[in-house]
Amino acid sequence: MKSLKITSLVAAAAVTISAFSLPASAADRVYKLKMAETWSSNFPIFGDAPRNMARIAESMSNGRLKITIDSSNKHKAPLGIFDMVRSGQYDMGHSASYYWKGKVPNTLYFTTMPFGMTTPEQYGWFYHGGGMELMQKTYQPLGLESYPGGNTGNQMGGWFQKEINGLEDLKGLKMRIPGFAGEVLAKLGAKPTNIASGELYTALERRTIDALEWVGPSLDLRMGFHKIAPYYYTGWHEPATELQFLVNARAMKKLPEDLREILRVSMKLASYDMYIQSYHESAENWVTMKTEYPNVEVKTFPKEVLAAMKKANDELLAEKAAADPLAKEILDSQAEYMEKVRVWTNISDRAYLDSIDSLDK
Amino acid sequence: MKSLKITSLVAAAAVTISAFSLPASAADRVYKLKMAETWSSNFPIFGDAPRNMARIAESMSNGRLKITIDSSNKHKAPLGIFDMVRSGQYDMGHSASYYWKGKVPNTLYFTTMPFGMTTPEQYGWFYHGGGMELMQKTYQPLGLESYPGGNTGNQMGGWFQKEINGLEDLKGLKMRIPGFAGEVLAKLGAKPTNIASGELYTALERRTIDALEWVGPSLDLRMGFHKIAPYYYTGWHEPATELQFLVNARAMKKLPEDLREILRVSMKLASYDMYIQSYHESAENWVTMKTEYPNVEVKTFPKEVLAAMKKANDELLAEKAAADPLAKEILDSQAEYMEKVRVWTNISDRAYLDSIDSLDK
Question: Which of A16, A164, B12, B231 is most buried, judged by most C-beta within 10 A?
Answer without folding.
Answer: A164
